[in-house]
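Researcher: Quick sanity check before group meeting.
Model: Go ahead. Protein one:
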Amino acid sequence: MDFPDHPFWDFSLRVYGRDGVGAACLHLQENHGIDVNVMLFCLWLGETGRGVLDAEELAAMKAATERWHQEVVKSLRGLRRILKDGFPDVFQGLRESLRGKVQAAEIDAEHLQQLLLAASVERPAPGGALTVEDRAGDASRNFDLYLDSLGAAFGPADTVHFAHILGQAFPGLTAERALDLAEVLM
């Protein structure tokens, strides 16, 4: 597919590709039902200096993307997982080829979801420079608002995973400070 360029997608690819981020995201997704695209959007808003979400903006984000995520993204993910090991008697090479096409469709569906997220909260980046700690703090507060909306409760291991993601999204942030910011989620 030919998607329009968007800095949120570029940010997501950059952060998700960093060491250990994919595994940490998968942990939060599997253990708490976190929509990784929403989490990344929360981080991107903070990283770009767009500040802290309010309840109405979060509701708009969820309204714009929740059905798409549930019915399209998660369905494709489920199908991809079934194709991995669910049919050992079906021609492995052909099954893997089909799985690759489903995975490509899943990535396209996530890309589209990210465009929907970005369109749901259109807030320009401010002109002034914020410190990395201020931006990371805003990102953490955005994610905390999202977690509250899910009724998700984080334990110490979850906090460590989020702190790792936060530290990778904000390279100037020390690991200790990332953990401090993540601990507000518990």
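Researcher: Fine. The other one?
Model: Protein two, sequence then structure:
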Amino acid sequence: MHEEMRTFGYLCPKCGKTVMAARSIFALAASNAVVECDCGESRLHVAFDGEKYLITVPCGICGGEHTAVCPPERILQGATALGCSETKQFCCFIGDEGTVEKHLRELAIVAEKEKQQQDEGEEAFVDNVIMYEVLSELKDIASRPHGITCSCGSDAYGMEIRRSAVDLICRTCGAKLRIPAATDRDLDDLCCHLKLVIPGKA
């Protein structure tokens, strides 16, 4: 009989690496489990008192530690995420390996951005959500045949991301097209375009 496994994942607040480990459902019901980071500086604890699970998670977002009490079905079935009470971000994922790995990758990106913002002492973007949506829309436009071109005839371009805009720069003539990325209106305007043309220096 194949033994069912559950994967636990979190982001180490000390070294910043993603930590993942699988435990069998049988082991989780029989005894406490510990998932430790390779750096030895953080560990996730899972304890079962016969009725519910007590999970202590090191938080890679705020640097603290969070404790969650969960019923067995939340831990042993489907996928679940535990949140950081400080930032309202998810800081721990439990489920099948693929799901946990995907969410952990996204969490590592979020944590890196938070860290950069703290280092800079300001928000990286005027509105993070709008910026992500604008970048996603630009990716869609770029994926179409000749989606982003320059009027000089080139379709080679680079992208510079700023606080409230994205600059598309023609690699051939150096011309620039600024795409505002700070408000809902900016996003709506961009969504109207199937293609974008950089006004070249031809």
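Researcher: One line on it for the slide.
Model: The radius of gyration is 22 Å.
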